[in-house]
From TrEMBL, chains A, B:
Its main location: cytoplasm. Its EC number is 1.1.1.85. NAD(+) binds at residues 76-89, 282-294. This is 3-isopropylmalate dehydrogenase. Binds 1 Mg(2+) or Mn(2+) ion per subunit. The record marks 141, 192 as: Important for catalysis. Pfam families: Iso_dh. SMART domains: Iso_dh. GO terms for molecular function: 3-isopropylmalate dehydrogenase activity; magnesium ion binding; NAD binding. Substrate binds at residues 96, 106, 134, 224. Its cofactor is Mg(2+); Mn(2+). Homodimer. Mg(2+) binds at residues 224, 248, 252. The gene is leuB.
């Protein structure tokens, strides 16, 4: 049956980079037998400008009906003046939560062709390939109660609740252990179990689920140490699993270690293989509309979609190989440009990938 | 009047490194007119082993009476089996909270003599000098309610509360702005105001207090981006201010950027200049008792104490100069050793500092 994909370009550079990713989809549909149809809709700031909310019920319903979602990026300074409830980011959070996309996979891979882009010394990062598994629909992002209230003494206080139930921890544990089984079979669970009770439970449940995966070597690390170890010796890690907030911080840190966040895709999966796929980078309002942004992370998000949601391994490989080819050929957008390479625009990079497909 | 200092060596390498720091104190008292007396007490795992609690009421009372506290490090795998309430780390948290040491100063400085120890490329870190100001007695570390409870459906859930009141934010804001005034007058406040209401209030209060310091350039950054920017271009920062949990993660990340966490001291201050001073590194149980640990972070913590609590700028400078001298002379403990340098033990490093005083 024809797979249905909802495409949500979003804000800033979103439409430009998603534009190149849908060209790739078009090519796969036309020439490589991919049985897929997609439609586009507004999300984030562009939805807010049009409809007064960052995600309309109609678009949410379309996302529910779709087999998967491809998203560009949302947000920008233009909307920072509004309250959290209607900001572009809220659309992301609502999609994650309503679609129960609890399993967020964030690979941090160093492309050999881009090795010199890393801030770290080459020997520390060459061959880097870490997968961060972040819980995406729980933790302090969604915990209740939350808000800003006035205390008895008249001053205000802000409060949020960091909460995880056993079943929430169990299901993300399975995602992480299964991912580790397909890789080097090493899983590092990150918590702050020496201070926070919620992560004491996290550690206990991880340990228990670990017994179902005796081949996987499970270790535990405090989040402060994990941030240190990522900088000191990132190659020590295979798969890392952590909660929503720590995962937000550590996955961005790990991504930046590669020096090329314009290259990194991500997947957010529900229990049945449906997913939302998006680049790890943001909406880069400073270069929006200039045909400068790197579309490769979004194109690689398509590859993750084909692999994780549609079982189209061969087509996923085809995209990854094409990306590797254009890097070998020296094509570079501004964010990954180094001396001697060919500086290209967003659309030219799309052209190059299509040619290499 | 004679200043009273409580010395808490703690666990692991704690006693060894503090031993060298008190030799420095002894020398300053004997030969340089420092009017100070100190006594030592058990804390952390060593207190737990002796008294069943990581911090006795008696030691807490001594800490209250003292003008400042010098601490080594606490914790180790030996005590990880016990519940959070009696673990060594609890002593630290209780001291911070009971003494109201809300202002945590964590400098991340790259020593030119140790430049090659950083994971980062030299041009990105040479001359690095970032000060992280971390709120230390509030936030999710201390928020109520907290614990592990059983839900109606029979499964357990862990929960913690992330909370800040306006007055808590105001006082750490003043610490940070004052620190920025003494430096490059740039302050970056780190929050997650696009998701967490508590940090929305944080941002609002920081902005308001900033108006009292018009000379300081205040910027705001989301914590995930801050973790990225620390890896990408750490020299963009002068002073950073953030809450307890984010500060725990970011200060360790920043410290590791220098490649020499064995060199970094910290101060935890109350509103009146009283402080607890300790190295940023942990208790390193793997090398405890081997006379291998680097005592310089603890010795530099003494220097911070003299500067921040006792106004002894000249003696503080003397210690810092002595540390610089021993580095110039090529003395290195194992953690900072590189080819061609002189590998020394903990006590030999102490000897070298005393000779250089
Ligand atoms: C935009 C923001 C709400 C989001 C998050 O914090 O999860 C982003 O940082 C991410 O990591 O996808
Ligand atoms: C030991 C631990 C409780 C402590 C903390 O999390 O604050 C430590 O990591 C630190 O940063 O001083």
């Amino acid at each position: 049956m024809t797979k249905k994909v909802l495409v949500l370009p979003g804000d800033g550079i979103g439409p430009e980079i998603v534009g190149q990713a849908t060209r790739v989809l078009d090519a796969l549909i036309a020439d490589h037998g991919l049985d897929m149809a997609y439609e586009s809709a507004l999300v984030g700031g562009s939805s807010f400008d049009e409809h007064g909310v960052p995600l309309t019920d109609e678009v949410l319903e379309k996302a529910r009906q779709a087999d998967s979602v491809l998203l560009g990026a949302v947000g920008g300074p233009k909307w920072e003046q509004f309250e959290i409830a209607v900001r572009p980011e809220k659309a992301l959070l609502k999609l994650r939560s309503e679609l129960e996309l609890f399993g967020n996979l964030r690979p941090a891979i160093l492309y050999p062709q881009l090795a010199s882009a890393s801030s770290l010394k080459p020997e520390l990062v060459s061959g880097l390939d870490v997968l961060i598994v972040r819980e995406l629909t729980g933790g302090i992002y969604f915990g209740q109660p939350r808000g800003i209230r006035t205390k008895d003494n008249g001053e205000r206080e802000g409060f949020n609740t960091y909460v995880y139930s056993e079943s929430e921890i169990e299901r993300i544990a399975h995602v992480a252990f299964r991912a580790a089984m397909l890789r080097d079979k090493r899983l590092c669970s990150v918590d702050k179990a020496n201070v926070l009770e919620v992560t004491e439970l996290w550690r206990e449940v991880m340990t228990r689920i670990g017994k179902e995966y005796p081949e996987v070597e499970l270790t535990h690390m405090y989040v402060d140490n994990a941030a240190m170890q990522l900088v000191r010796a990132p190659k020590q890690f295979d798969v890392m699993v952590t909660g929503n907030m720590f995962g937000d911080i550590l996955s961005d840190c790990a991504a930046m270690l590669t020096g090329s966040i314009g290259m990194l895709p991500s997947a957010s999966l529900d229990a049945n293989g449906k997913g939302m796929y998006e680049p790890i980078h943001g909406s880069a309002p400073d270069i929006a509309g200039q045909n400068k942004a790197n579309p490769l992370a979004t194109i690689l998000s398509v590859s993750m979609m084909l692999r994780h949601s549609f079982g189209e391994e061969a087509l996923a490989d085809k995209i990854e190989n094409a990306v590797s080819t254009v890097l070998d050929q020296g094509y570079r957008t501004g964010d990954i440009y180094t001396d001697g390479m060919k500086l290209v625009s967003t659309t030219e990079m799309g052209d190059a990938v299509l040619a290499a497909l």
